[in-house]
Specification:
The chain has a domain at 31-75. The chain has 2 helices and 2 strands, in the order ββαα. The chain has helices at residues 45-53, 59-75; strands spanning 35-38, 41-44.
Length: 76
């Protein structure tokens, strides 16, 4: 069989939706099922928990706020 006729093996995750989190910029192992979709963006469950527990006014809070604003601007 020639190289042109060989069939290529597809990766195991072919067809699986793998979004990237707008906060941590990582792809969750479970794909879209491990987070929430916000218009065209996505936030993973780990970042959801972090957002709930962060203190308002902290440096981490301000960084998250900037990323959320960017996410919302991209949605419109």
């Amino acid at each position: 069989m020639t190289k042109l006729m060989e069939t290529k093996k597809l990766p195991e995750k072919f067809g699986m939706l793998v979004p990237r989190c707008a906060i941590c910029e990582k792809v969750p192992q479970g794909g879209i099922r491990e987070g929430i979709k916000i218009r065209r963006g996505f936030i993973c469950t780990n970042c959801e928990r972090m957002i709930i527990g962060v203190d308002a006014g902290s440096n981490e809070y301000n960084q998250i706020l900037l990323k959320l604003r960017t996410l919302i601007k991209k949605a419109f």
